[in-house]
Design brief:
11 helices; four-stranded parallel beta sheet; alpha/beta; globular; Rossmann fold
Amino acid sequence: MSQLSVEHLLGIKYLNKQDIDLIFQTADHFKEVINRPIKKVPSLRDITIANLFFENSTRTKLSFELAEKRLSADIINFSAGQSSVKKGETLIDTVNNILSMKVDIVVMRHPNVGAGVFLSQHVDAKIINAGDGTHEHPTQALLDSYSIREKLGSVTGKKVVIIGDILHSRVALSNIFALKMQGAQVKVCGPTTLIPKHVKSLGIEVEINLKKALAWCDVANVLRVQHERMDIKYFPTTREYKQLFGINKEILDSLDKKIVIMHPGPINRGVEITSDVADADQSIILNQVENGVAVRMAVIYLLAQQIKR
């Protein structure tokens, strides 16, 4: 069977197109599994996985846990809020303690950029990056591309606009890498204060007019404004943001085509997207959630194949 070219999933930028294709083919198989009456396979019955979340997460954590359970892995859950990290224990100490319990795979979310890379150099386990600071969130980008492929048949040649807080978003960066690798055209749209200066060097265009961006695209991936990562104000008021960059039914109906609406969640309903858009038939937000489990099953399964017993 084919194998991933990497030993860990640290970021999309370390993958190649063949890796993404292999993950998607494997996810197709697992998608079929999770739609059966018995949703479990015994594939990873002898594998132990530690979920280390040094930052709050609900959806990603639940999605990984469900993926691991569907594969019959043993799971250790760890939240930094209830741990010795609060008492000053270092990342390496925490992880070494968990690895002494003979853990094979570590799924980690951490507020510091590069935490996963650092960990992969110091511990003998497969590392899956579930988000590092404002850097990358590779499984989210994979499930987003997988959802586009499912809805539109392919990602190649599609026009995708990422709208909102690009500056603080690890989802945006991972998506840009993944979409470009698969031959999509990508633009970003949002307030100029929330678009990083270096973004054009990634080979994408910036569009600050929302209507023009929506008229251009096949898919709009809408991000929330990440107030928790902001130490200054990047725009005057939420009301003004909503007027300039919020997507509502009226704007969508004014377009001469039906575009696909995506959102990685959590949604600020009534800010970046209204409820009637989030729940519309052209929205694939709930498909993204379902696909997240299949894609994470695929990633875990493929990395587990490389573990030497």
